[in-house]
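Changelog-adjacent note: as of this version, every example in the card shows the full chain rather than a window. The one below runs 347 residues end to end.
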Amino acid sequence: MATEIGNVVTLLDVARATDPKGQIPALVELMSQTNEMLDDIPWLECNNGTGHITVSRTGIPSGTWRKYNQLVIPGKSTRTQVTDTCGMLEAYSEIDAALAKLNNNDARWRLSEERGYIEGLNQDLAYGLFYADTAINPEQIMGLAARFDTPSATETNVGSQLIDGGGVSTDNTSLWLLLWGENTVHGIYPKGSKAGLTIDDKGQVTAGDATNGYMEVLRTHYKWDLGLCVRNWQAIVRVCNLDISDLKTAGADSDTSANLINLMIDAEERIPSALWAGGKAAWYCNKRVRTALKKQLINRSNTLIALEKLTGAGGLIRNTLTFDGIPLRRVDKIGIAEDRITGTFWS
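Full-length structure tokens:
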């Protein structure tokens, strides 16, 4: 399958264009080291303030075979308008000013102290992209799982993009295939703003209250406004109901009841051929699934799985597991205790 990035613009590209001072690009490179999704997601500025309005085709017109002098009834495609919104992800850090002074207020030391806050927001983003649901928490974004949670036996329905992994208990997980692109699925950020995590150094302030006392701290405000736009649901496939206990016994010569190789082939074929050109494909799973797949490298007859050196954000070269040439990204925020998804799956 083709995985050319085409004109897709990643967060690092946008950050470099919107923040010439270089602060946000440096943060993007730092975050991408622990969140491999940032190497893939293209980001577009919202076209309606903090919302992004798109039109998604829900039906394709059919033609008419005609004879001479026979009329042809005009056809039309059916479309629906979708508005995706941004959520505001924020945090504050406070470092003892005396401790900072002891370290000569060194910027590198301070960044090392605050890495935990940055990584926390990074993980919040990863979780939100998959599991946030505006129907439950309106202040968040609409994640993928809430959009792909009901199977359908109808091929023209979004539910046909769910594939049953066979698990029947509640210790299930999912494997996702996404084809990122401007016309498929991409990230969004508010109109007129900077893309990515921004940092506002509030300087030295007095923290505490009358009950517990006060202290001088160096306060930093972190803010990330973002959202997710799914313009074409056919560019996303969710392999759900993967039983974690089955994956533990997967080895080079056995794939147990969760036959990952066959399921991944099925997932690739759910994405229409016409969508592959110009997009960037990637698999996403947690460490349990990727471990099971990595063991398949020992099986010499398996030519679909390989370990390749791929360049990520900031030119960082990673040893990356690939399936059919598509990178397999590890996202540990993808759960290991998902409820079983039931219904009639398309096959």
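Structural remarks: Confidence is low (pLDDT under 50) at residues 1-7.
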